[in-house]
Write a structure and sequence with these properties.
By secondary structure, the chain is α+β, with helices and mostly antiparallel strands. The protein is 38% helix and 32% strand. The longest helix has 17 residues.
């Protein structure tokens, strides 16, 4: 079974306090579900149409595991805390 990667690219952070509340809940929910943070923070450099906003890369053992974490009650609570605090593009992709 191929590993899966959760890629979250932020387009804008509208409320730093809401983002902090989200992070406080999301980190433990993701880790408890088996997610491993590989990278997070502002990009060192952006090219083409990239935005100089926060990016997060998380590894999971499978797409199913990544989806289960996203859909879990604990992660959904984190999303509720984030609310309109950020605009982002979250993708789950299967490793090669």
């Amino acid at each position: 079974m191929a590993k899966a990667y959760w890629v979250s690219a932020y387009r804008a952070v509208n409320d730093a306090d809401k983002l902090a509340a989200y992070a406080k809940l999301a980190g433990p929910a993701i880790a408890a579900g088996g997610g491993r943070f590989l990278a997070r923070g502002l990009p060192a450099k952006v090219y083409e149409y990239g935005l100089p906003e926060r990016t997060v890369l998380i590894e999971f053992d499978s797409v199913e595991q990544a989806r289960a974490v996203h859909d879990s009650p604990d992660y959904q609570a984190a999303l509720a805390a984030l609310g309109d605090g950020a605009e982002r593009d979250l993708r789950i992709i299967e490793g090669v």
